[in-house]
Give the backbone structure.
Amino acid sequence: MRIEVSPDETGVANCAADLIAAAVAAKSRASLGLPTGVTPIRTYAELNRRVLRTEIDLREATGYAIDEFVGAATAAPGTNAAFYAEHLRLPLRALDVPDANAADPDAEIRALARRIAECGGFDLCMLGIGANGHIAFNEPGSTRESQARVVELTPPSRAAHAGSFGGIDLVPRRGMTLGVADLLASRAIVVLATGAGKAAIVRTAIEDAESSDVPASWLQSHANVTWLIDADAARRLNSR
Ligand code: PGA
């Protein structure tokens, strides 16, 4: 695994945009897994700047959500669909997001995983990491073999989204997510982590043994993972 430490969030966003630019330069019809959360917002803004300066052409690339809430009105504030509408203003060929309001959310997320597999799998999947070690909505307890499915969200994960839903009580209790196995099927994985609040979990995920207690630790066994971390999130790494 590669670990690249940048001085700050802007550095992380620039590095992430560089890796996405390289992926679409190598394959214009690239399939990209695109996370939600606070962390990737700067990366999406940087990509947007590069699009406006015609430094990057994403028009043949397809973006895919990696998770979504279950049981929220489609594009209600707080859903990942709403996040993409606000923060991912990129001229992609398509952006494939499951329906938070689907009658059968298990079938909905399995169908997304199937569409990703049918297009040849992710060329690059970008991920954030939750303070509890989740990747997408693979919460602690998720096995390496876990597949696309509906999950119960943990209280910390729900709390992290209270603001965007307008209160903790309005945050759905369940999410749908690509499984750890689906994420590990990506040819390249880029993990973003910024801020001192991620320092402990970044160290655990990278330096402790792989364990379903920390789903992000499953990334250790992937052949092509790049961690893009700012100095604050990197400060507990023993290797630094
Ligand atoms: P964050 O979320 O970027 O808002 O910290 C990360 C995640 O939960 O994947």
The pocket of 2-phosphoglycolic acid is lined by residues 35, 37-39, 128-130, 134 (CB under 6 Å). Residues 9-26 form the longest helix (18 residues). The radius of gyration is 16 Å. DSSP finds nine helices and ten strands in the chain.
